[in-house]
Specification:
single chain, mainly alpha, 2 domains, 73% helix, 0% strand, Retrovirus-related Pol polyprotein from transposon TNT 1-94
Length: 111
């Protein structure tokens, strides 16, 4: 499950391995927590190991094939109705267009 737990009566080597495993797990947790948005953080704080955290994130954001197709359809619709707003600069419009196109590309690879 991501962390090796040394038996109650263990020699020095298994204990050292378990300590290194815990330290590694804490480091990875720290990296994950630093890179995850605060809104997501609240849903994963109850997880014990990095594997639990990662699996939880994958389940939440990968979704089923139906969900992916629905998201792709939504992105297609957003792209079809995309229009530049009067108060929007060309750079802002281009950034919005590029963001939608990149999301569509990412979804096509996953489906």
């Amino acid at each position: 499950n991501g962390v090796t737990i040394a038996p109650q009566i263990a020699s020095v080597e298994p204990c050292r391995f378990a300590d290194e495993s815990k330290l590694c797990d804490f480091k990875v947790k720290n990296y994950l927590f630093q890179s995850i948005d605060r809104s997501i953080m609240e849903t994963i704080l109850v997880r014990d190991t990095t594997i639990d955290i990662w699996d939880s994130i994958c389940r939440k954001y990968q979704g089923s094939t139906k969900v992916k197709r629905a998201q792709l359809q939504t992105l297609h619709r957003e792209f079809e109705v995309l229009a530049m707003k009067e108060s929007e600069s060309v750079d802002e419009y281009f950034a919005r267009t590029l963001a939608i196109a990149n999301q569509m590309t990412a979804h096509v690879e996953k489906v």
